[in-house]
Amino acid sequence: MTISWDDVTGLGSAGWLAIAAWGALILGVIVLVYANRQIKRNRLLKTEQIRPQVAMYMEPHAADWHVIELVVRNYGQTAAHDIRFDFANPPTVAAYEDHGYDGPPEVAELDLPSELPLLAPGQEWRTVWDSAISREELGGSIRSRFDGTLTYSDEPRPVGGKKSRAWSRRQTFESKVCLDWATLQPAQRLELLTTHDLAKREKQKLELLRNVLTYFHYASKETRPDVFRAEIERMKHAVAETQDRWRTAQFDQTTELDFPWIKDDAAGRHHVNNR
After folding, report:
1. Among candidates 70, 144, 75, which has minimal Cα distance to 107?
2. pLDDT tens for residues 107-120?
3. pTM of the entire predicted model
4. How many angstroms separate the CA atoms of 65 and 59, rounded?
């Protein structure tokens, strides 16, 4: 069936009105479909923006570059609940206790919590993982990369088994975790400083830390109060001596650089202000 120009021009007002009505109906359907898609898109975008965003990563300690911390942080605008970690190969650490110092430290699994109940927006949880120096000594005998999954929810679990309306809207999110020691700057920096005096000093600091940890490990097992008190006083005395030695060195540097008129044999180099 063909429609000629005469048929179109011969339409009356009723025909044109019907065409206009159908055109308006089709246009309205198109507008409704488009508006519905835009609403869904904006809703998903808003949900993505305000939902919790939890990430796990490695970060060097602020004071010691070779000490690496493990950090879990919520970058989102809402709280994250029931945060769990799942690794195919759990992160490992060099164990310092109960081993001889004539060889490298043993490898043990890093002690991580089974779950973090809550992380508010901007809140983080962190723990000391290991030292890049210690892992460099172990070489290939310790794994350097750990892949895992981080799961968390935007609503807490119901208390007492009572499920609220928010529980029905509860969403669980998942993010991939890749912890790789090879990508950190401290490991590269360690390779550059292995023959430098600074690297030797860092190794000595780590050895000091190992000895302190071993001392605490055995001293804390003491059950006799008098012996325990004697150990505490001995430790306090050692700390006081170290602080006094450090303050003396700092004072000597200040006197020589800023107060050259103070003689080396001048009395009263250490002052205690009792008010």
Report:
1. 144
2. 888 888 889 999 99
3. 0.53
4. 9
Q: What are phi and psi of 174, to 5 degrees?
A: -140, 135
Q: Are 150 and 55 in contact (CB under 8 A)?
A: yes
Report how far residue 194's alpha carbon sits from residue 197's, in angstroms, rounded to the nearest whole number.
Answer: 8
- Strands of the sheet with 172-180, listed across from one edge: 116-119, 80-87, 145-153, 172-180
**HEC string for the chain:** CCCCHHHHHCCCHHHHHHHHHHHHHHHHHHHHHHHHHHHHHHHHHHHHHHCCCEEEEEEECCCCCCEEEEEEEECCCCCEEEEEEEECCCCEEEECCCCCCCCCCEEEECCCCCCEEEECCCCEEEEEEEEHHHHHHHHHHCCCEEEEEEEEECCCCCHHHCCCHHHHCCCEEEEEEEEEHHHCHHHHHHHHHCCCHHHHHHHHHHHHHHHHHHHHHHHCCCCCHHHHHHHHHHHHHHHHHHHHHHHHHHHHHHHHHHCCCCCCCCCCCCCCCCC
Return the pLDDT at 274: 43
Contacts of 171 (CB under 8 A, 6+ apart): 51, 153, 154, 155
Where do we find the tokens 């800023």? Answer: 258
Per-residue confidence (pLDDT) for residue 85, from 0 to 100 = 92
Please name the residue that has the structure tokens 């529980």. 167
User: What distance in Å separates the CA atoms of residue 215 and residue 219, rounded to the nearest whole number?
Assistant: 6
Nearest one of 147, 142, 110 to 126, comparing CA atoms = 110
